[in-house]
């Protein structure tokens, strides 16, 4: 390993020397033969038709119609050298290829070399330059990888190499693009710049030159590196291609050639030194050297022998080193093809040495890494950097990915032209895997802390947060803070000295913990915490900081407090109510009994064992036990009543209501029984029942008495109506007969007596009729129906019509169609009596008036009968409704004193009210209020 | 004029002697052609039934008071109306009772008319005349 650089240098020197020797020899030969050749070529000047497809700046037609570009410059130079006459043909790429295929053109400038094309055409062996596709986009575009081209509009020239290559590449990645066709690369970049496309694909050589003018930037998407060469039809004279190759090799090998001048012109690459008039130099050099040539040849040969020997020794040493190196070493041509590989490299990628020399490095490089590598290669070629080192992936022959660390240096010839790359390849797959495993492990650990169900935080010695769990952030209200790297004390300025002391103790190696601690935040909220603070140790064994674990169990604490409060609440109820409460297990054993229970059964110590059934009366015990079991099975509490036997042998009546307590699994675990001593209550109920029976009997007797009295009353009124009337009829009848039959036998006085007898009989008869009416009102059953007041009043007025007409009373009725509710005959009797009264007492007014009107309220109707009669003194307003009460003498205003009593009785029975308002001589108004 | 009705008697069921006398006088005033038979209580009234069965002339009309000694007037009415022989004889209840219950019962049992006995003798004579006129002269009795 230590000898490696020296060996490499030796190998470099050897190759360089060999090349120099070869070139010197070639130059000599060329110089010697040049005049002869030139003459021969000029003698038979050849005309070549050269195809040009648009591929600036390699080959294109400028606005004046002249062909331009690097490939054109170089070809013009070669033509001048070879005495060819060139005839350029410009056309679209597909047409140009078709012409080439048919042999209609002899050469094609600046065309991409591909193995597929190599089958169809002859290609120069020398590569004019390497070119690759680059995607450009506007500055600030998010397109930075092939995948980002998904659904993007991509400008491209249809049929151009890079267009096809991009399509193929995106297809392979399953990315769909929207192609925007353009005529040439200029248009591609113009479309991108104008926003007609999101990205555009051009060659690297064109892009380098024109991107700035269009204000577009490389996206970093580079692909399909290809060698640009010249091509000829398959059956053309191979001498043309060979001649071109010869020139190209010469042109590419020196920095002062027309090739590099052209590169500088088209790509703007700064050339360290450009030698004007290179041909002159060459000729002068050749002429000067020519004389001494023969002499030098001898010396040269001798020196060559000596050097060859030394070199062979050096090479053997180098080769041994090269082959036995623990790293892969390769020489790679500027176009990417392998020149030499060592066994170690073959082992890394799994190809044999022969297989390895076939593909280029691009073929075994992981596609994702290729762009970076090509970029770096480009930079090295452009001399903007000397070497580069990347970690990238190779594709093993088996298809597996091999991570390697690649160090590349470019070896240039003494004239500065790139010769080949020396690549040192180190297999770092194991390290990469280890790194990935470590990353994964760290990620796991981070996830573990992040998602830990507890609040966890790790601090360094300065109490700065290193790592923290999400729970910590939520528990301490730090969700929106970026706290890693910040000091704990800065975030929690309220932290007390006590806590800081805990931290210090943990820093000193102690594990400090608390199972229940009240912590008051500066905003006043209280948190209950369980915490543990312990040190953590760095790999060297020193304490690196502390880890704080804390659990906020405030919610549980509050729940516990609430539960305790509830428990107290219910215990208070259970212990202070008169009822007895016992809680039983499933076997019927007492687990809890309330003070009320002990009042009846004695203190717990006096109870005979825990069996709750022991003190139940033997006749009831089994029944109660069955009910208990049923409750346990069904989970439904039962109501029950039974007797218990107390210690003194007395019996008490008990009523119970059961309920069950279920466990978390829903199964019945306990039975709660609330009982009440109902012995007194039961006695009381019995007494009440007995009293009720007695009372009912008394009511029955009283009712019977009343019924009997009622019956007697009926018999009485019957007797009054019948037996009192019969003698009256006799008196009336015979006094009439006496007056008729014995009129002449009686004197005036006798006839007056008989007349007074008959007046008495009439009065008596009327009294009896009124009494009967009164008694009937009192006894008859009433109907209840809607009564049309207008109709009822009309009926009554019709009955009184004779009296109304006789007295000339003016009657005014205004009832607005109102209705009342009650017994039609009752109302009729009321109205009849009130109307009679009015007519009677107003008979002397001039003219008598009777006004009947009504108003209604929500529940009743108020009827008013107003007359302009003699009225009455309000001091008698109650007495006028009493039976047999009269305010006027019978000879002035005849009457029995029963009329208003009948009215009062009827109104009362119909649920109404009647009253009168008057003053002597002012008329009277009787109000009648009835339900609606 | 119903010729065949002239000699058929009227049965007056009335316990009050004055009323019997006044009724007879009232009829007499109208020169009533029909003889008047008098039953002084309910029992006497129902005792007529076997006599009618034995062949005595059925009355053209029965004037029935309700308040009677021994057998009540409504009871007499019930028996008369339930007997096939007497069922068709028109019965006019002539009473001082204005009781709803009496009116209702009398019609239910088949009374043909219900007339209140006025206290006023003039009116009483008038009622008697109307009854006689209607039942003995206008009405066609069953044959």
Overall tally of structural domains of chain B: 1
Radius of gyration of chain B: 14 Å
How large a portion of the residues of chain A is in β-strands, by DSSP E?
15-25%
How large is the count of helical segments of chain B? Answer: 5
Overall form of chain B: globular
**Order of adjacent strands in the largest pleated sheet of chain B:** 2-1-3-4-5
Based on the coordinates given, report the CATH architecture of chain B.
Answer: 3-Layer(aba) Sandwich
Task: Say what the CATH topology of the largest domain in chain A is.
Answer: D-Maltodextrin-Binding Protein, domain 2
CATH architecture of the largest domain in chain A: 3-Layer(aba) Sandwich
CATH superfamily of the largest domain in chain A: Periplasmic binding protein-like II
Order of helix and strand elements from N to C terminus of chain B: EHEHEHEHEH
Strand content of chain B: 5-15%
Tally of separate helices of chain A: 28
Oligomer: heterodimer
Give the name of the CATH superfamily of chain B. Answer: Response regulator
Helix fraction of chain A by DSSP (H/I, runs of at least 4): 40-55%
Number of strands of chain B: 5
Any overview of this molecule?
Chain A has 7 domains: 4-127 and 228-298, D-Maltodextrin-Binding Protein, domain 2; 130-226, 3-Layer(aba) Sandwich (D-Maltodextrin-Binding Protein, domain 2); 325-427, Beta-Lactamase, CATH 3.30.450.20; 434-555, PAS domain (Beta-Lactamase), CATH 3.30.450.20; 577-677, PAS domain (Beta-Lactamase), CATH 3.30.450.20; 683-755; 782-931, Heat Shock Protein 90, CATH 3.30.565. In chain A, 47% of the residues lie in helices and 24% in strands. In chain A, helix 2 (70-82) runs antiparallel to helix 9 (258-267). Mean pLDDT of chain A is 82; it is low at 1-9, 24-43 and 269-280. Chain B is 43% helix and 15% strand. Chain B has 5 helices and 5 strands, in the order βαβαβαβαβα. In chain B, helix 1 packs across helix 5. Chain B is globular, with a radius of gyration of 14 Å. Classes of the chains: A alpha+beta (932), B alpha/beta (143). The A-B interface holds A 718, 721-723, 725-730, 732-737, 761-762, 765, 772, 776, 780 and B 16, 18-19, 22, 25, 66-67, 95-100, 117-122, 124.
